[in-house]
């Protein structure tokens, strides 16, 4: 549907909502704010984050952006899914983004994570944008997916930052035997980045088992770190965290 392509991608700047963009001096690897020049996220402090860069489509997970992502994630609202897919396409089709990567892959989900929802929200957003993205970016067709979630993980909501890193270890695996990712620059898509643990575990598998050269992330929103919240409560604040 070629006619759709021209009007489908939507610049995040054109959304009639108040967004809190990632500041230019945020950590480029995880998009978290820095305190006294240093990234506060556990993954960066410990050197666990294999991501070269994190792109954030809407900004920090607050206000209108948070409400929109929640509508897609928790309520499976079809309009929210389509709107998010359109701004995702608008972001990814910018020349500097699409030329920096060879492949776009969504973070996989375990069937048990559907919890009664008719579709997996991130997959629905990805599939909605796919026909528009494909001419410009090589995308995982999910038949079968490059990456699978090999075992269910307990809900990550309410978990501490450290616990989130432990829980996802070994949860993902290569879904098809291929050389297509060997030496490739891969952009991994997720809806919310909370600690970066899920994206990092996917990145580790792609590097170690598929030979990918470089992994970066693109997420709709980044959960902001708060000085008044110890890591103990980080998960609780992250109501929209990636719990699938
Ligand atoms: Zn960082």
Question: How would you explain this protein's 3D organization?
Answer:
This protein is an alpha/beta fold. It has one domain: Rossmann fold, CATH 3.40.50.2020. It contains 9 helices and 9 strands. A 5-stranded parallel beta sheet has the order 3-9-8-4-5. The protein has a two-stranded antiparallel sheet with strand order 1-2. It is globular and about 40 Å long. The structure holds zinc ion. Zinc ion (ZN) binds next to loops.
Class computed from helices, strands and strand pairing: alpha/beta
Strand order of the largest sheet: 3-9-8-4-5
Kindly state the number of beta strands: 9
CATH class: Alpha Beta
Second CATH tier, the architecture: 3-Layer(aba) Sandwich
Percent in helix: 25-40%
Bound molecules: zinc ion
- Domain count: 1
Report, as a whole number of angstroms, the end-to-end distance: 32 Å
Rg from alpha-carbon coordinates: 17 Å
């Amino acid at each position: 549907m070629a006619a759709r392509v021209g009007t489908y991608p939507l610049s995040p700047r054109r959304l009639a909502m108040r967004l809190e963009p990632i500041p230019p001096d945020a950590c480029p690897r995880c998009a978290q704010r820095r305190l006294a020049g240093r990234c506060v996220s556990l993954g960066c402090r410990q050197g666990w984050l294999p991501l070269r860069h994190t792109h954030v489509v809407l900004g920090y997970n607050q206000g209108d952006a948070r409400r929109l992502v929640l509508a897609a994630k928790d309520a499976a609202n079809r309009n929210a899914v389509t709107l998010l897919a359109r701004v995702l396409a608008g972001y990814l089709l910018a020349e500097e983004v699409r030329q920096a990567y060879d492949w776009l892959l969504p973070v996989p989900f375990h069937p048990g994570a559907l919890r009664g929802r008719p579709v997996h929200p991130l997959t629905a957003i990805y599939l909605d944008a796919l026909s528009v993205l494909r001419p410009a970016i090589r995308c995982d067709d999910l038949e079968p997916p490059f990456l699978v979630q090999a075992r269910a993980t307990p809900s990550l909501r309410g978990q501490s930052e450290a616990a989130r890193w432990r829980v996802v270890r070994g949860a993902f695996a290569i879904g098809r035997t291929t050389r297509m990712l060997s030496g490739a620059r891969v952009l991994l898509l997720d809806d919310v980045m909370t600690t970066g643990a899920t994206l990092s575990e996917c990145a580790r598998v792609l590097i170690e088992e598929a030979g990918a050269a470089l992994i970066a992330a693109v997420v709709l929103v980044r959960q902001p770190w708060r000085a008044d919240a110890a890591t103990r409560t980080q998960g609780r604040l992250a109501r929209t965290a990636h719990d699938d």
